[in-house]
Amino acid sequence: MASGGLQLLGFVLAFLGWIGIIISTAMPQWKMASYAGDNIVTAQALYEGLWMSCAMQSTGQIQCKVYDSLLKLEGNLQATRALMVAAILLGLIGIFVAVTGMKCMKCMEDDQVKKMRMAVFGGVIFIVAGLAALVATSWYGNRVARAFYDPFTPVNTRFEFGSALFIGWAAASLAILGGAFLCCSCPRRETSYPPSRGYPKNAPSTGKDYV
């Protein structure tokens, strides 16, 4: 019963992590313009994401522009896109696989070992999806930090971490943690005992007794 609760908890955490990965991928606030300079006064906030760049006016109006061409984008941005999309697809596959192996589902009830292995396999897929999202967000954040501390970067073009990065880190952690909980439901191997040996039969008496 305890393993069933741990399995359900793992699935819920992994599912929430997958939802967070989708939200993080769609958000335009992967990096935001930094106003750390002394004499910088601006009436708008600038954001850049994986798919578009946005400008929010002081009045609250937001204007976004989708990136025109895929071929004109930097290779790092394209790789980040690919990793996040791969994490979403892997998470979707992990959901179907893990649901099949959940104890509360009636699928594959005739073979409990295979059913539990499906849950473990779904957990592994969630872990891989979380790692892909973690690599993508960390890689992107590292590039933002390096450009921020680069002395050759103009002050008015420096960016800081956006809220989408923090959501991505939290979502990736949830997916990895939930996948680990699902893997904890791995069926234990039953100890195999050797077949019991019967006692040797007494040899037929030859009529000779030795003292």
From TrEMBL:
It holds the Pfam family PMP22_Claudin. The keyword Oxidoreductase does not apply. GO terms for cellular component: bicellular tight junction; plasma membrane. PROSITE patterns: CLAUDIN. The keyword Nucleotide-binding does not apply. The chain crosses the membrane at residues 7-27, 79-99, 119-141, 161-184. Residues 191-211 are annotated as: Disordered. InterPro entries: Claudin, Claudin1, Claudin_CS, PMP22/EMP/MP20/Claudin. Keywords: Cell junction, Cell membrane, Membrane, Tight junction, Transmembrane, Transmembrane helix. It is a multi-pass membrane protein. It is found in: Cell junction, Tight junction; Cell membrane. GO terms for molecular function: structural molecule activity. Belongs to the claudin family. Claudins function as major constituents of the tight junction complexes that regulate the permeability of epithelia. This is Claudin. It comes from Hemiprocne comata. The gene is Cldn1.
